[in-house]
């Protein structure tokens, strides 16, 4: 694989859990990183989390204090898209909504007409579909799917759209490696590989609970101890967000045109009730205590 990614500066759009994680990993790996969010509040929270996680890494002797300071100095937090103009790649990590993403991508393609790569961290939306929003830039548009928590999880799933050119793929594979990740290619079908397999498993765990086969904690214990999963599927659903799980099931059902991917009624009901998992303090499990 080529190591020639030609990338010095990474732009990250979205400073939530995924965007913040991608930015941190980029900066720790020696890249200059510009983190964009339209919310200055979100940027402040992201920066505070970076400070905390980097301090923890120093405490755990995974890096020196000087290295942590250098990584922090390589990150800039901005709320104007124009500051991304020096980025060699922009990685989008905003809300999983195709229309909102496309609106952003069309603005990016208008602003940045050079050789800048435009990557989406979408978990399941078709890269070919998203690339329709960037016109001629479709050949430098690609999927770069990271996993939560980004600093811990080794994988980047790299997804080519129909128009992605080989040079773009090679550069993104080399960049992922330079970020300390293992990049694995997948083709552009709904859910790619990861979520096509993970989400039906999580969905089945909800059916198993709904049908009274076992209690949630027992379902999780069986999958943790029996399959060596770090978290059971229901705890993982809470970690990912039940709304995200429901949304990905909908994308699978529509994109693969098969009703077997429909979200379990119990999953949908919890989402309707606002029980979205860790982020709301209550999902399958109660985190309020
Ligand atoms: N950022 C940085 N480091 C983190 C972190 C975070 N957000 N969360 C945990 N860590 C680190 C901790 O600091 C700790 O390292 P240390 O011992 O050196 O301090 C290490 O990870 C382990 O953490 P904990 O001891 O707190 O807890 P666990 O041992 O239970 O591990 C876990 C937590 C890493 C989250 C583990 O439970 C796990 O791997 N779970 C599965 C996660 C998973 O499957 N992620 C994929 C989700 S799917 C996805 O993202 C795709 C999307 O499209 C849906």
Kindly summarize this structure in a few lines.
The chain is α/β, with parallel strands linked by helices. Helix content is 46%, strand content 13%. The protein has an eight-stranded mixed beta sheet with strand order 3-2-1-4-5-6-7-8, with helices on both faces.
Provide the fold topology.
Blueprint: E1 9-13, H1 17-28, E2 32-36, H2 40-59, H3 65-73, E3 75-78, E4 89-92, H4 98-111, E5 117-120, H5 127-131, E6 141-146, E7 155-160, H6 166-178, E8 182-186, H7 194-210, H8 216-227, H9 233-240, H10 242-255, H11 265-272
Parallel strand pairs: 1-2, 1-4, 2-3, 4-5, 5-6, 7-8
Antiparallel strand pairs: 6-7
Helix pairs in contact: 1-2, 2-3, 7-9, 7-10, 10-11
Bound molecules: 3-hydroxybutanoyl-coenzyme A.
3-hydroxybutanoyl-coenzyme A is lined by residues 53, 56, 60, 123, 147-149, 151-153, 195, 230-231, 236, 240.
Task: Describe this entry's structure for a reader.
It is a single chain. By secondary structure, this protein is of the alpha/beta class. The protein has two domains: 9-186, Rossmann fold, CATH 3.40.50.720; 195-277, Orthogonal Bundle (N-(1-d-carboxylethyl)-l-norvaline Dehydrogenase, domain 2). The chain contains eleven helices and eight strands. An eight-stranded mixed β-sheet has the order 3-2-1-4-5-6-7-8, with helices on both faces. Helix 1 links the parallel strand 1 and strand 2. Helix 1 packs across helix 2 (40-59). The longest helix is centred in the N-terminal third of the chain and has 20 residues, at 40-59. The model has no long low-confidence stretch (mean pLDDT 96). The structure holds 3-hydroxybutanoyl-coenzyme A. The site of 3-hydroxybutanoyl-coenzyme A (3HC) has 15 residues, from helix 2 and helix 9.
């Amino acid at each position: 694989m080529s190591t020639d990614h030609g990338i010095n500066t990474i732009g990250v759009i979205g400073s939530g859990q995924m965007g913040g994680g991608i930015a941190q990993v980029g900066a720790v790996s020696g890249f200059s990183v510009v983190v964009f969010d339209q919310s200055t509040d979100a940027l402040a929270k992201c920066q505070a989390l970076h400070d905390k996680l980097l301090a923890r890494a120093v405490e755990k002797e995974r890096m020196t204090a000087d290295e942590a300071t250098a990584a922090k100095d390589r990150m800039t937090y901005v709320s104007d898209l124009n500051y991304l103009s020096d980025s060699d790649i922009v990685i989008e990590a905003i809300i999983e909504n195709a229309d909102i993403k496309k609106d952003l991508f069309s603005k990016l393609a208008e602003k940045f007409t050079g050789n800048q790569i435009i990557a989406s961290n979408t978990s399941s939306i078709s890269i070919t579909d998203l690339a329709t929003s960037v016109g001629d830039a479709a050949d430098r548009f690609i999927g770069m799917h990271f996993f939560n928590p980004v600093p811990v999880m080794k994988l980047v799933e790299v997804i080519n759209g129909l128009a992605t050119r080989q040079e773009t793929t090679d550069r993104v594979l080399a960049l992922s490696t330079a970020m300390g990740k293992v990049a694995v290619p997948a083709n552009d079908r709904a859910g790619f590989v990861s979520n096509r397999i993970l989400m039906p498993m999580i969905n089945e765990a909800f059916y198993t609970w709904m049908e009274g086969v076992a209690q949630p904690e027992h379902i999780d214990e069986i999958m943790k101890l029996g399959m060596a999963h770090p978290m059971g599927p229901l705890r993982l659903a809470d970690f990912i967000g039940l709304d995200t799980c429901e949304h990905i099931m909908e994308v699978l059902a529509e994109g693969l045109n098969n009703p077997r991917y429909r979200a379990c009624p119990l999953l949908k009901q919890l989402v309707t009730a606002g029980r979205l998992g860790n982020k709301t303090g209550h999902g399958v499990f109660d985190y309020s205590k």
